[in-house]
Amino acid sequence: MGRDSARRHGCRHFQEELQGPARVEDLKGNKKCRGVLIKDTAGVVLAHWKGAADMILANCSAYVGADGATHEFGIHNRSNLDKVIKDMAMANLCSIAFAFKQVHNNDWSKSDKELTLLLSIVGLKHPCRPEAKDAIEACRKAGVAVRMRLKQKGHVVAVAGDGIRDGPAHTEADVRLSMRTDFAEVSSDIVILNNSFNTVVTATRWGRYIYNNMQRFIQFQLTANVAALVINFVSVVSSGNMPLTTVQQLLWTEPLISNAMWRNLAAQAVFQVAVVLVLQYRGRDAFGTSQVTNDTMIFNAFVLCQLFNEFNAREIERRNIFTGLLRDRMFLLVVAGTLALQVVMVEVLTMFAGTKRLSWGQWRTCSSIALMSWPIGWAVKFIPVLERPFYEILARWEIVLASTRKEAD
């Protein structure tokens, strides 16, 4: 392109086959502009430059017009070209300028003082990678906005860098991805080995899988532990007895928590606390059982509530908790194994667990109670929640109260 441009704009002695560069240098030590000394067929040495348009233009005193003639730069012409370069930048084009001058006696040191003739300014558009379109569309569907976004707006920013020019943004990003370059790999959280933006979608998908599974596990465990803690506390304070023994608890209970999780686990915990306390104080009279049998029913109902709540924990926001259930074979295997162990615990290991065997009717009663967690989990998801995390709201009120106290003092 530089050769054709030079030929069209008056450099008719430009050699078709170059004899080879005499020397290659950066413009005043700046790597954004590079020049080369070339000797043409007539033996004339020319210094040809290419690089950032604004820097090349600043070192030119004249330009080659469309008519092939040389024209001196005036204030008006230079300002017009400055505007062209800025317009290219606004249009996301990389502006490259080409310039040359004749060098006498191969004196390179004088050739970079003034790039006499500006040949042309071109705007280059960086094409997207072939797979980028589909990857960006997948990111948009997943709620990931592919655009420049300031961290000051409170968003988590990920930057995919592939060179030194991405260094400043790469350093300030929350998540740093590199396209397998030595510079970016040093400070990266994730290195994309196949140099494909489509891998960002895969990394995001797997990251969300792990994050969502952690949320589901925490929601499930918090529901069980909150319910067990309240049940034992109220029972010990009121009657001196714990309906859930130490062995039973050891075997069955042991900024990730969103507002939706708090809503879900609060509803399930309140339901389980209410059910177990009713069984604790009214179970013997309602079912005509002994204290040991009633405690076993409490334990059985509590564990079955956790078992049914595992289905609720599969979805934090969506109401259909059975989506893709048959494909999740590991989940079904865990549920079946837990249910089998619970049956063994109640019906076989009675001496070890301090339980008593239950009748079919008592099993149906416990299962019916636990089954109520499904409609409760479905109904509670109609309750809207704030987007801002609950702990941020508490922290904000804490700051307000602290400032109020200081003003009062």
Automatic annotation (TrEMBL):
Key words, A-Z: Magnesium, Membrane, Metal-binding, Transmembrane, Transmembrane helix
List the molecular function annotations (GO) for this entry.
metal ion binding; nucleotide binding; P-type calcium transporter activity
Task: Recall the taxonomic lineage recorded for the source organism.
Answer: Eukaryota, Viridiplantae, Streptophyta, Embryophyta, Tracheophyta
Q: Which GO terms describe its cellular component?
A: plasma membrane
Subcellular localization(s) per the UniProt record = Membrane
* Gene from which the chain derives: ga11233
Report domain Cation-transporting P-type ATPase C-terminal positions. 253-383
Write down what this protein is called. Cation-transporting P-type ATPase C-terminal domain-containing protein
Q: Does the keyword Membrane apply?
A: yes
